[in-house]
Design goal:
Elements: E1 3-6, E2 9-10, H1 11-16, E3 29-38, E4 44-52, E5 69-77, E6 83-90, E7 105-111, E8 117-122, E9 125-129, E10 136-140, E11 162-165, E12 171-178, E13 186-194, E14 206-211, E15 225-230, E16 233-235, H2 245-248, E17 262-263, E18 267-268, E19 273-279, E20 292-298, E21 303-306, E22 325-328, E23 333-338, E24 341-345, E25 351-356, E26 368-373, E27 379-383, E28 388-392, H3 401-423, E29 431-432, E30 436-438
Parallel strand pairs: 2-29, 6-30, 14-15
Antiparallel strand pairs: 1-28, 3-4, 4-5, 5-6, 7-8, 8-9, 9-10, 11-12, 12-13, 13-14, 15-16, 17-19, 18-19, 19-20, 20-21, 22-23, 23-24, 24-25, 26-27, 27-28
Length: 439
């Protein structure tokens, strides 16, 4: 079923801060999407942020109508597309006070097999939230903010920086390490799988499968990861999966040898096969044409292939930094959307469809970002300027993808018009007065 869902701001937040929705983002405020995921019962969760930073306003300004602010928002939608509830917490989460959430970088969502919502961020921060968004159930926080804060070994209780669920309920995770590419902070470097359940009372061990930087620098015994293992020993120091992914394709990055490359969020293509994206370093002057790999890694840690068919220049994900990959593990389909097209592969890594954004029918896709695949395979896209989620039904046969997406884009226009009449948005900013939880 095609759906169009608004990324709505709580009306109480807009009023409390006297937020001018007509102002340009160049004035210091903005709304930004982090992730959108589906639940097995057909519900959808979206994670996004709103912030305002005005030059010259003091950090300790007490008037909320003037003060700078930042919030993360989670909105829950019913299977019919209605907003059921929202939750908000301040940027910085527990570090800044007034929230239990372990906020971090590269925020993402995951609906766990028991229906609990996991909010993840780097480095290895996982917060479990009740499905109705009413409260925080548990927090697994690395408490590692090096180099900005002194690190106290044993103080934190980390889990993962991102999580996706396999068809059998295993957890595909990413983990961070200190000293990656010789930096003095903690950066995502590992991919692993957890066989047990993640609950408010316990966390499963993570068996690492792949690494990006094979030899992070400056590590000591305090950098071992007891909850993550390789060959039955804690990951860290010289113990991690080798050869690293970058070593397996070393010749493909002749410019920088994969130095300062970046690991994307892995997704399951089947129960035992995963897509692990990684990207060469970015440059200030533009990175189009830089190498990237969508590797196929099995649950034994072997790179068995890749998603083929993309050109480093003509299909570059570096334009607009479109790094997301989504997958439907039940059908064995993988998807990627960037400024040049929507791409779809089968389980063997063969490119089966490319919807070229240079064509009139698919040019509107340049305004969308790819979120994820819902459990039933539907594609969840988000319009970056109109702040709307588009749910696209997944075809069983990828040869039907073009017709399906073309119809979804036409329907998006009709539903967007209906929503405008119903919601009366201001400059494509939607507001609602439904239940709001502060977590």
């Amino acid at each position: 079923m095609i759906q169009t869902l608004p990324l709505a701001l709580p009306g109480t937040l807009v009023d409390h801060h006297r937020l001018d929705l007509t102002a340009l983002y160049s004035k210091g405020w903005g709304v930004h999407l982090f992730d959108v995921v589906g639940a097995p019962n057909g519900e959808v969760y979206a994670l996004y942020g709103v912030s305002r930073h005005t030059y010259g306003v003091a950090r300790d300004e007490q008037d909320p109508q003037i003060a700078n602010f930042g919030y993360r928002l989670i909105t829950r939608y019913s299977a019919a597309g209605e907003i059921l509830a929202s939750a908000q917490f301040r940027t910085g989460g527990a570090r800044e006070g007034g929230s239990e959430v372990a906020d971090g970088g590269d925020l993402s969502l995951c609906v766990l097999p028991d229906g609990v919502l996991a909010v993840t961020g780097t480095p290895d921060r996982t917060t479990l939230v009740a499905p109705d968004l009413s409260r925080v159930l548990a927090v697994y926080d690395s408490k590692d903010d090096r180099p900005y804060r002194e690190f106290t070994p044993g103080e934190g209780n980390p889990f993962a920086g991102s999580i996706t669920v396999t068809p059998a309920g295993r957890l595909l995770c990413t983990l961070a390490e200190y000293g990656v590419w010789r930096y003095g902070n903690v950066i995502t470097n590992l991919v692993g799988i957890a066989d047990g359940a993640l609950t408010a009372d316990s966390k499963p061990a993570i068996r690492t499968l792949a690494s990006l930087d094979p030899e992070p620098a400056h590590q000591s015994a305090v950098d071992l990861r007891p909850h993550a293992t390789y060959r039955d020993a804690p990951v860290g120091l010289a113990n991690r999966p080798r050869p690293a992914l970058t070593e397996l394709v070393a010749a493909e990055d002749s410019l920088s040898g994969w130095d300062r490359s970046r690991l994307g969020r892995p997704v399951p293509l089947s129960e035992n096969l995963f897509v692990v994206p990684f990207y060469a370093r970015t440059f200030r002057g533009g990175s189009r044409g830089q190498p990237f790999v969508f590797a196929l890694v099995d649950d034994r840690g072997e790179m068995t292939g890749r998603l083929h068919g993309l050109h480093e220049w003509h299909d570059s994900p570096f334009t607009g930094l479109c790094r997301n990959v989504a997958a439907d593990p039940h059908r064995g389909h993988a998807f990627h959307l960037n400024r040049y097209g929507l791409y779809a592969w089968n389980k063997a890594g063969v490119l089966r469809a490319k919807l070229d954004t240079a064509t009139k029918a698919f040019k509107p896709l340049t305004h969308f970002t790819l979120g994820s695949c819902a459990p039933n395979g539907d594609l969840l896209l988000a319009h970056t300027k109109q702040h709307l989620i588009l749910r696209v039904p997944a075809p069983d046969d990828l040869t039907a993808l073009a017709a399906t997406v073309e119809e979804a884009l036409r329907e998006y226009g009709r539903r967007r018009t209906a929503l405008k009449k119903q919601w009366s948005p201001v400059n494509w900013h939607w507001t609602h007065d439904g239940p709001l939880h502060r977590i």
